[in-house]
Specification:
With 291 residues, the chain is α+β, with helices and mostly antiparallel strands. The protein is built from nine helices and twelve strands. Helix 1 packs parallel to helix 2. The model has no long low-confidence stretch (mean pLDDT 95). The structure holds cytidine-5'-monophosphate.
């Protein structure tokens, strides 16, 4: 048994997000191209003498009770493996902002599952971990897998795509105001005739591995359901300052821009007000992994 295990869990962005239907349970059927990026939360899991699960987090706005997805992930892992009765501490060092569409909570849940599998030498396969992950949230299976992938269904049918160019630089910017995922999907349902993104065009351009070709096709149908003026302003600032493409990620409110040079992304980041979250990153080839 290991004393403690630390995992780094990357954020994800949606290079393209389209909605193609809705199930009886209210969940929407998506067609989305997802990408993990080098913006990581660090999750440490360790056995503790006292029974129960405890979460320690360096950010005050993050709940440390049963509502945290990391807690639910540990519970689901113990239920699945029947390893109940252990005391567990989970330390979250957060870099991924919440209410951003960057899957911060899902990344932490993925990190907990990967970490516990190693800590308890449980030997669960990736498929088993992804199965447990899906019971926690639609993005968790992708956060376990990472890289570049097409996700369909509610996000759980994952088809790997060729890795996008290592030269690609992403600038992620989130205004102080955040978005609630259920509220954004609900607002989407009220739109009469949403405009759909060019899904086939992006897939073809991404497969050809050419940033110049696919970046302008990055688009997110959920942008039409979010009425936060800052989002359009951030996109425009990026596009006027060297981004080859820019789009909201997930249900927002973060926006990413794709640049060919880190210097241009860094200079663009400096243009945003201090209270905005900004991060310059690269594509991450893997999902949550021990470090
Ligand atoms: O799965 P997750 O917990 O991230 O989803 C949060 C909420 O977002 C769901 O309760 C649902 O209202 C909405 N959602 C959806 N369709 C999806 C994913 C999420 O309607 N594919």
């Amino acid at each position: 048994m290991n004393g403690s295990v630390t995992v780094r869990a990357p954020a994800k962005i949606n290079l393209l997000l389209d909605i193609i239907g809705k199930g009886a349970d209210g969940y929407h059927f998506l067609r989305t191209v997802m990408q993990t990026v080098s913006l990581y939360d660090k999750i440490t899991v360790r056995q503790e003498n006292e029974a129960g699960i405890r979460i320690y987090c360096d950010k005050e706005n993050i709940p440390t009770d049963k509502t945290n997805l990391a807690y639910k992930a540990a519970e689901a892992f113990f239920n699945y493996t029947r390893l109940q009765g252990h005391g567990l501490g989970i330390t979250l060092k957060k870099s991924i902002p919440s209410q951003a569409g960057l899957a911060g909570g899902s990344a932490d849940a993925a990190g907990v599952l990967i970490g516990l599998n190693v800590l308890f030498e449980a030997g669960l396969s990736y498929e088993e971990l992804k199965g447990i992950g899906l019971t926690l949230g639609a993005d968790v299976p992708f956060c376990i897998r990472g890289g570049t992938a097409l996700a369909e269904g509610i996000g759980e049918i994952i088809t790997p795509l060729p890795d996008i160019s290592d030269d690609c630089v992403f600038l992620i910017v989130k205004p102080p105001i955040g978005c609630s995922t259920p509220a954004v999907f609900k607002a989407y349902d009220e739109i009469e005739a949403p405009v759909h993104p060019d899904f086939d065009g992006l897939i073809a351009a991404a497969a050809a591995g050419n940033t110049e070709n696919f970046a302008p096709l990055c688009s997110n149908i959920l942008e039409q359901a979010v009425s936060i003026p800052e989002i359009e302003k951030i996109k425009n600032t990026m596009l006027l300052n060297g981004a080859a493409g820019a789009s909201m990620t997930g249900s927002g409110s973060a926006v990413f821009g794709i640049f060919e040079k880190k210097k241009a992304a860094d200079s663009c980041a400096d243009l945003f007000p201090e209270e905005y979250f900004t991060a310059v990153c690269k594509a991450a080839l893997n999902g949550a992994e021990t470090c």
